[in-house]
Amino acid sequence: MPKQIRLNAFEMNCIGHQSPGLWTHPRDQADRYNTLDYWMDLARILERGLFDAVFLADVLGIYDVYQGSARTALEQAVQVPVNDPLMVIPAMAAVTDHLGFGVTCALSYEHPYPFARRMSTLDHLTKGRVGWNIVTGYLESAARGMGRTEQVGHDARYEVAEDYMQAVYKLWEASWEDEAVLRDRAGRRFADASRIHRITHDGPHFQVDAIHLCEPSPQRTPVLYQAGASTRGRQFAADHAECVFINGPSQKVVRDIATDIRARAVTAGRQASDVAIFTLMTVITGPTRADAQAKYQDYLNHVSEDGALALMSGWTGLDFASLPPDEPIRFTERNAMTSALESFTTADPGRSWTPREIARHAAIGGRGPVTVGSYTDVADTFESWMEGAAVDGFNLAYAVTPETFTDIVDGVIPELQRRGLYKTAYAPGTLREKLNGPGQARLPASHPAARVRR
Questions:
Q1: Residue 303 needs a FRET pair 20 to 30 A away by CA distance; which of 2, 22, 45, 435 works?
Q2: What number of CA atoms fall less than 13 Å from residue 157's CA on the CB side?
Q3: Looking at residue 342, which CATH number applies to its domain?
Q4: What confidence tens digit (pLDDT) does each residue in 262-310 have?
């Protein structure tokens, strides 16, 4: 039986996500991002298409590296304004039964104790359909907004993350025993206090001395996503992540990272199959190749290459306005998203990129590839990437929303189903059970979170 493709919708609680300028397209509805109707409508579309999850990106701070100013980002809605992604999840959960929710939350600026409660609350409200995309942040503007003069160094941020994970694991996994909740009305005892434990954590960055505020949720620890592809980020993913999100402009770049992460997971005592790897892709499609090409040319009339360079400058920490537009860029250390610059430089030494080429490439779909073609063309591309890039599925960004997603749901997914490459019904259970199988609502014994359980 062929390997089935997993799909997440890549979204963000903002107007301009991965394709700067396309919010101006007359059919785009991204400027409804601040209404519940937008998110509920999107959730219904995705569940109709049997998407595994909606993956909600987030960022603290403003993209102000490009030209040394936030002006481009502000004028062209480059991931700003951006609202809190957690707030929209309950509304989407209320109109769906199976769709998962991977939400990005930066651990650099919130203490583990209240954060653990927020995620447990979402896991309860969604009946076990929530996941956490673990990020450490990458914008200096976020650090300044939080009262710091600068953010912690790149690799040091992962040391902070390691400490953070140990704290939240203890809160989610070790504070309340499975039998602690009684709900005994006649005996007037909601819980057995002897089975509820104060946990202590005295780490190098975080200290916790508390009982977790929530009773055990369906998954306890949410499904763990991670999106760092630097050398240090790969090790963190291999140690902790269940789903890893990789960006890259080519199959080679993505394949090399995916292979390395799986090897590291095995070295860490896990199975290679414990880590599902998704890569970014933007799809522009129609019934025929000509239809898709016409749509693509239409979209190009609305892109903002300046907006694309504002994104890339923020991701890499490198001001692209300061570089010669037609000379290949070189890798230099920056205290931002290391993998973003690596993917256009050292990750594929056989391909050089100029700022002008990067602006055109990133104007639709950001750092990932764009596939333009008929429904069958797109299905072919998915198959090719599954094999050539060694991935388990795709985080699909939109060019125009919700049009991109309805095109995939109504055209591409039926073609994948005809090929036996995509599910025809959701599996029952929590998000983790849908990913791993029935009876696997909690993290397996091989995961580091299991070490803190009582």
A1: 45
A2: 26
A3: 3.20.20.30
A4: 999 999 999 999 999 999 999 999 999 999 999 999 999 999 999 999 9
Query: How high is the pLDDT of residue 77?
Result: 95
Quick: pLDDT tens for 29-66: 999 999 999 999 999 999 999 999 999 999 999 999 99
pLDDT higher than 80, residue 341: no
Are 230 and 154 within 8 A, CB to CB?
Answer: yes
Domain count of the fold of the chain: 1
Label residue 220 exposed, middle or buried (CB < 10 Å: 0-12, 13-18, 19+): buried
Q: What are phi and psi of 292, to 5 degrees?
A: -65, -40
Give me Rg for the CA atoms of the chain.
22
Here the tokens at position 100 are: 């998962």
Rounded to the nearest 5°, which phi and psi values hold at 279?
-120, 150
* Residues 397, 48: Cα–Cα separation, whole Å: 18
Cβ neighbours of residue 89 closer than 8 Å, sequence gap 6 or more: 56, 101, 103, 122, 125, 126, 130
Domain membership of residue 317 as a residue range: 6-452
Pairing mode, strands 370-374 and 276-286 = parallel
Q: How far is CA 438 from CA 103, 172, 418, in A?
A: 23, 21, 25
Query: In this predicted structure, what is the pLDDT of residue 127?
Result: 98
**1 located within any domain:** no
Which tokens go with 34?
Answer: 């601040």
Say how far residue 211 (Cα) sits from the centre of its chain: 29
